[in-house]
Design brief:
- The chain has helices at about 1-20, 30-50, 75-90, 90-105, 115-130, 140-150, 180-190, 190-210, 245-260, 265-280, 295-300, 310-325, 330-345, 380-395, 400-405, and strands at about 55-60, 65-70, 150-155, 160, 170, 220, 230-235, 365, 370-375.
- α2 packs across α3 and α9 packs parallel to α12 (about 310-325).
- It is mostly helical.
- It has a 3-stranded antiparallel β-sheet, with no helix packed on it. The chain has a two-stranded antiparallel sheet with strand order 1-2.
- The chain has a domain at about 1-50 and about 250-405: Glycosyltransferase.
- The structure holds glycine.
- Glycine binds near residues 174 and 246.
């Protein structure tokens, strides 16, 4: 294992040396050097260890791996991480593994009972098509977009998130993430109705999900007959009125996407307000990795540190980098995201080679109050970390792949 990691590190060092010799840009920051070697090593090991269609999701308290099957909302993240890993490092084996793990999800295209079909297909097949332009990935994406759009109720003006449990017509802030899929599908499949659905969902959500300080509720439950709001609740936050950390990230990411696709300035303002809420939050720790809910101390009355959520930090970093490209002065967003990425790439969060069941990041929280996935690696923390790193490299004009070829 040590030998394999040394080889990965040697390749990375060669890439970085080429970079330093052949470009006028600043050399890549030191924290990136170790990171790229670890990513190559961990993703290759994970791909060799797990079976396509049963993807690594998190680590159970007893150390075993929780796997994501074909109906698990997180099932698209591991294939997506392999695609991002390939994009980041140029490692061809990662591309071959990404293809295998993506195609194993073919049956997901038939799922109709959740908005999560967006995460499941767009992160896997969506990245596969974006990177390879292989049209064989399109039929699954076409079916998934149709099923996601079919969950939209024009009377209420939102896509229904879940079909389970006691809710009447639940819409979660996470649902904002799947609008990117619909905007893309509107263009790819020449169906402007998909973009209208996405824009209407975003406008209704802006009206009903947000508080005066631009923090968001997790779940808004609507009356399917009248379209009126029945209740504003939480599912994964500490209380109905709290700011669940990952939810704030989902909202920030979602409104940035909506602005990029519509150029509607209300969406840009919303994204910037959410960014300000997060970045100026008095409870944001110095390393900029939030605890799992910004209001956990209010609910418990306990000041001792609550578990951090690296997945929320990764989503926030990726969203801020995207937002930085949409505004005149995006530097404050790049700087903040860079701080997050530095923290996530430090030994405190990034696993060493061979550790962490081959996940990249440690210390995320899935659903604290359900005693589920507390202080564990999570497949979506890794996915958004890799996405953020790719965005960072693109903004900083660092292309490790090209330089390694030259
Ligand atoms: N979409 C579910 C979660 O963020 O945990």
């Amino acid at each position: 294992m040590k030998k394999a990691f040394c080889l990965a590190m040697l390749a990375t060092t060669l890439v970085l040396n080429c970079y330093a010799g052949k470009t006028q840009h600043d050399p890549p920051p030191g924290w990136l050097k170790k990171t790229t070697g670890i990513i190559t090593f961990q993703l290759n090991k994970a791909a060799a260890t797990y079976k396509p269609g049963l993807n690594p999701r998190s680590v159970n308290p007893n150390g075993t791996v929780r796997l994501a099957g074909l109906t698990d909302w997180t099932t698209g993240f591991f294939p997506g991480s392999l695609w991002y890993g390939y994009e980041l490092t140029g490692d061809k084996n990662l591309a071959a593994e990404a293809k295998k793990f993506t195609l194993a999800l073919d049956s997901v295209r038939h799922i109709t009972n959740t908005h999560d079909v967006g995460f499941m297909l767009y992160c896997s097949y969506g990245n596969a098509y974006r990177i390879t332009h292989d049209k064989n990935y399109l039929p699954a994406l076409q079916d998934g977009a149709k099923h996601l759009a079919a969950r939209f109720n024009p009377k209420i003006g939102v896509i229904r998130s879940w079909d389970f449990s006691w809710w009447h017509y639940p819409v979660i802030i996470d649902n904002m993430m799947n609008l990117e899929y619909l905007y893309w599908a509107a263009g790819e499949f020449k169906n402007p109705g998909y973009a209208n659905i996405a824009t209407t969902h975003a406008a209704t959500t802006m009206k009903n999900h947000f508080r005066k300080d631009y923090s968001s509720y997790h779940v808004v439950d609507y009356d399917p007959e009248t379209g009126k709001v029945i209740a504003k609740r939480t599912h994964q936050g500490v209380t109905d009125e709290s700011a669940w950390a990952r939810g704030q990230g989902w909202g920030l990411y979602g409104y940035t996407i909506c602005y990029k696709n519509t150029k509607n300035l209300h969406f840009l303002a919303q994204a910037e307000h959410i960014a300000a809420f997060i970045m100026n939050h008095p409870r944001m720790p110095k390393d900029k990795i939030p605890v799992w809910d910004f209001d956990v101390h209010n609910a418990t009355g306990v000041e001792e540190p609550a578990p951090r959520d690296a997945s929320a930090a990764a989503v926030i970093a990726s969203a801020l980098l995207d937002l930085s490209t949409q505004v005149k002065d995006g530097k404050k967003y790049v700087d903040y995201a860079e701080d997050i990425l530095k923290s996530l790439s430090s030994d405190a969060y990034l696993a060493g080679p061979g550790e962490n069941q081959y996940f990249l990041l440690k210390h995320s929280v899935g659903a604290f109050l359900y005693n589920s996935e507390i202080d564990t690696p999570l497949d979506y923390a890794d996915y958004y970390y890799l996405e953020a790193l790719n965005r960072y490299l693109s903004i900083k004009k660092i292309d490790l792949k090209e330089l390694s070829k030259s």
